[in-house]
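SEQUENCE-TO-STRUCTURE ENTRY
===========================
What this section holds: a protein sequence and its matching fold, both as plain text.
Question of interest: how does this chain fold, as expressed in backbone structure tokens?
***
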Amino acid sequence: MDARYGSIYDEQAARYDRLVAREDHAGNLWRALDGLGIGDGPVVEFGAGTGRLTRWLADRGATVLAFDGAAPMLRLAAEQVTGRVAFAVADNRRLPLPDGCADVALEGWSFGHWVGDGADAMVAEMLRVLRPGGRAVIVETLGTGVEAPAPVPRLAAFYADLEARHGFTRQVVRTDYRFADHAEAVELAGFFFGSAMVERVRDAWLPECTGVWSMVKPSGR
């Protein structure tokens, strides 16, 4: 993982949480996930962060085991998410869980940080904890500040591998940010994405594309 992002997750969890609260103002991601028919669990979540996806799962009655490598992120998540949820610090490449324990294995904006340095192991771990017939769901960026999918090359190769080697299918959704005002947009977009992204802010709006990859684990895997 890029050291800058690691520092954000360890030291600025609350500010990060303010940013992602402004993402997907139209609710397109939630509709895409609803369409996958995710039930009431058990769900294993990789890279839970401050609990954005965890909250969505808990609100639907799922039993969730949520993991992340950054303890400060999980502490904030635990303060904000209620329901049948347990949080624990763990490496995405090896969770302290038995094989085939989950009906759903889900990750959001986590594996992409490790492409070239562990993402393949994370996908394998996702499939390990998933029971045959269970569903794996991967949510990753297709570009921020763009109105059409535009992943960077290293991520495009990873996504192609998900589809060609593992049998994931992809949906593309717009997850545009809508901020309270231009000042907040500049602050939060610049803090996380860097100064170049500030130039793509339009008043209080920042476009974004996100991919949702899913597959049902076949018997025998």
Notes: The beta strands are 43-46, 64-68, 85-89, 102-108, 130-144, 169-174, 177-178, 205-206, 208-216. The chain has a mean pLDDT of 95. The chain has one domain: 3-214.
